Every structure is written in C-alpha cells, then in structure tokens.
Amino acid sequence: MLTDQSIIIDSRVNGVYTMHRGVEEIMATNIIALNHVKKSFGRTQALKDVTFTLPAGQVLGFLGPNGAGKSTTIRILLGMLKRDGGDATVFGEDPWHNDLAIHPRIAYIPGDVYLWPNLTGGEIIDLLLRLNGQDHNPKTDALMKAFEFDPKKKARAYSKGNRQKVALIAALSQDAELYIFDEPTSGLDPLNELTFQQEVRKLKKAGKTVLLSSHILSEVEKMCDAIVIIRDGAIIEQGNLDQLRHLSRLRIQVQTEQPLSALKQQTGVFDWHENDSHLQANFAVDHDALTAVMNALTPLGIVDLQSTPPTLEDLFLHYYSDQGVSSHVTQ
C-alpha cells in the first residue's frame, strides 16, 4: 500500500529506504507506479488491488501463474486497457490518456506473438523497429546471431519459439528507456533462455529499467533486483529476494552424536526425514525458529551441519499455499 510514508525498493542504494512523500509525488518519481489498481471483465474481477512501483534502473520480477493478473496489469500500463479504479502512471503520465507519448519510450514483448504470415522474420523485425521510430542496426544483427535466428524464412513457417525470437530481437534492438517483457521466453529452448538472460543483464548494466513478468522462477531469480508476487488479482508480497527469503524455510541437513528424533516435534520444524540410526536428519525450518532449533541441536553433539537458503521457488510456493497466504495476512 502506498501511504505518505511509503517504502520503495531502490537498486541504487541496494536496499530499502523510507520516502516521506505523498502518493502523487511517489507516482511522479518512478518509471512505473500503480496504486490500488482494479479491473473487471463483466462479473470477473481480474485485478482487485495492484500496488507497486518500479524506480529507474531496476529490474523488477512480476511473478504469478497464468490467470493471476500479470498480463492485465501490463496492458493497463501500455494503455491497452482502461482501469476501473486506482491510479497508474508510466513516466509520470496516465497510460490510458497519454499512450502516444509513452509508447516511443518503451520496448514491449507480449507473451503470445502473432506475425504477418507472408512476411519474412527479418522484414517483420525491420517493420517493428520502424513503427517505433528506429532502424535496423548492428545490434539487430548481433541478436539474430546470438539467438540463432534465420530472418529469411516466411513467418508462416516459424515455430512458437521462432515467433518469440522475432519479438525479442525487435525489442532488444531498440534503445528504449523501459523494457516490458510479458512471459518473454515462452517457447524458447534452454540455450536461448540463457541468451535472453544475458541480454537483460546487459540492459541492467546500462541502467535501463525492466519489468519482467514470468512464472519461471529461476529466470526471475537470476536477473531481478526486486520481486512482486500477484495472486488472484492482488499483490500479496513485494521486496528484494533477501527481504523475502526470511519468510520462507531453510533446508537443514544435520548429523549428531546422539539421537535427534525428538527434534521433529520442535515448533517450526517441517518435512522431517531421518536415517535408521536416528543420528542424521534432513528437514525444513522456519527462519524465525532457527535459533531454537540450533539450541536444541547443540547438546546432541553436532558432527556435521549444512544449511541451504530457500530458492525463489520455495518462496513462491510458500506464498501460493493457503497456509502461506493465511500466515502472511495475519502478520
């Protein structure tokens, strides 16, 4: 929620700081700002409460499964849909009323790419560039080579992956201020996914701003400064990965000199597995219970202990479980 004292993630200081500003000023000083945005299609409420900001120079991961509201949010930011409630700005402008001023500053990749079937991939790339006031350039050729893309074939012959490459090459060829990627690697093979990740890191190094919508958790984890998680049209959590990890469980593998079976009854311990000797165990533990668990382990004589931090996937599943959402709401 944006209030007069709103917390904004800012990659320039690698952390969080408090801004004593009103909502209008916050929305004007971020590349993207959404405040309690709502959108319905008939009786279906696609967006119930979407609030987040994206400062300049940051890569923001917008996480959620299909149907959570990611694409609807992006279409509102592009001025393709009119919101029913709340406020939304891009470069400080209302995207519904000022889309013509905003679009030349944005490079966009949709999740579903449809092409002109009788044009070649190269012709479509050049056309997309010209539509945004830009031209085929050396970077375009370098991207074609990096993505192993054949620009001479007619679009009708392209697979989904190759159709996606057309949009990727056209968008990444542009010198834009804001890049919006909606499920950009859909249909790509692992090598091309890696190429895309490398290109996003180049954008980040160049100080560009990126909104990356995805359900591929490893993709977001490798590239993003901050994360926004959406469920059923509402934002349920946001922050950088380190800030959110403390809400998920650590994985502990331990060996002790004395049996440790009693530990599985400890508060905050889950998914317990131990060997027949009862001297080795593998389990998950809530971060807040870690001190108590270590205090219980120490008298047993720790021979070996390994702690694995949660991945973004662990965090994501935590928030999408009924228990995770309920615990978040009651905090």
Automatic annotation (TrEMBL):
<keyword id="KW-0813">Transport</keyword>
<comment type="similarity">
    <text>Belongs to the ABC transporter superfamily.</text>
</comment>
<dbReference type="InterPro" id="IPR050763">
    <property type="entry name" value="ABC_transporter_ATP-binding"/>
</dbReference>
<dbReference type="InterPro" id="IPR027417">
    <property type="entry name" value="P-loop_NTPase"/>
</dbReference>
<keyword id="KW-0547">Nucleotide-binding</keyword>
<feature type="domain" description="ABC transporter">
    <location>
        <begin position="32"/>
        <end position="257"/>
    </location>
</feature>
<dbReference type="InterPro" id="IPR017871">
    <property type="entry name" value="ABC_transporter-like_CS"/>
</dbReference>
<dbReference type="GO" id="GO:0016887">
    <property type="term" value="F:ATP hydrolysis activity"/>
</dbReference>
<protein>
    <submittedName>
        <fullName>ABC-type multidrug transport system, ATPase component</fullName>
    </submittedName>
</protein>
<dbReference type="InterPro" id="IPR003593">
    <property type="entry name" value="AAA+_ATPase"/>
</dbReference>
<dbReference type="GO" id="GO:0005524">
    <property type="term" value="F:ATP binding"/>
</dbReference>
<dbReference type="InterPro" id="IPR003439">
    <property type="entry name" value="ABC_transporter-like_ATP-bd"/>
</dbReference>
<keyword id="KW-0067">ATP-binding</keyword>
<dbReference type="Pfam" id="PF00005">
    <property type="entry name" value="ABC_tran"/>
</dbReference>
